[in-house]
Amino acid sequence: MSAAAETKEPAEGAAPAPPIRKERSTLGILLRSPAFLVGLAIVAFWAFCAAFAPAFVPYNPLADDLLNTLAPPSAEHWFGTDQIGRDVFSRVLVGARDILTIAPLATLLGTTLGTVVGLVMGYFGGWVDAVIGRLIEVLLSLPLIIVALLVLVALGPSTPTVVVVVGLVFTPLVARTVRAAVLSERHLDYVPAAAVRGEGAIHIMFVEILPNIWPPIIVEATVRLGYAIFTIASLSFLGFGVQPPSPDWGLAIAENYGVLVGGFWWTVVPATVATASLVVGVNLVAEGLQRAVAE
After folding, report:
1. How far apart are CA 178 and CA 217, in angstroms?
2. Is the pLDDT of residue 3 over 80?
3. Which CATH number does 28-49+80-294 carry?
4. Taking the domains of the chain in order of start, what are their residue ranges?
5. Predicted model pTM
């Protein structure tokens, strides 16, 4: 008797054999990633500050004190004061609000537009993909920060303008990622099956394909968020982002970097460290998500 013939089906009601490999959930992978957890803690801290810092900071971040300018860190002012006597500690905590409002909005806009463009490119292919692809290549050949500056110079700096400009600048990058994901899905059985059922292109792209490519989109959006934070801080530093008297970090660095030569480091270093820590935190979260999706 052959081995195949000797194989018996499990008896009815018997417990099934344990699986050879236990699949790990994405959430479980993330919770076991120290880098992800550290990044999440950093982002959560600054998000908490953005939401609630105005209620508990020791000083009004916009109130100046011309009799106490450039005071070094002390028990009264933990991070010292700036050129016009404003408390640096209070300004750093409250300054998270602008950047954590503008950057996510710009990222959401760029991700949404990029997803739509990438779906169209990947699904239709042919001349549609070729034409849009050439336009994307032209845009990506230009320094993105220069493009943003040129548009802001033409339109004038304002919060809505910054959101739209940064979102549009990120659109080609997201579109390229989404296109690659769609190309890997387009020829799978469920796509032709939907077409045979008579479903239209919009239904197939947004109902059939989109739910299956969420993981790379989420990872790309998280990466873009880190770049958005850095870009918006850079624009504020150059005078084309958030405008005074906001305690925005980039603006705070721009207002006080001139006194560094006098040794008044505390007017600039806290905002610089805050910006860097938030970017690092977002990048750690993105790295954790990317590894979880890959596994």
Report:
1. 7
2. no
3. 1.10.3720.10
4. 28-49+80-294
5. 0.86
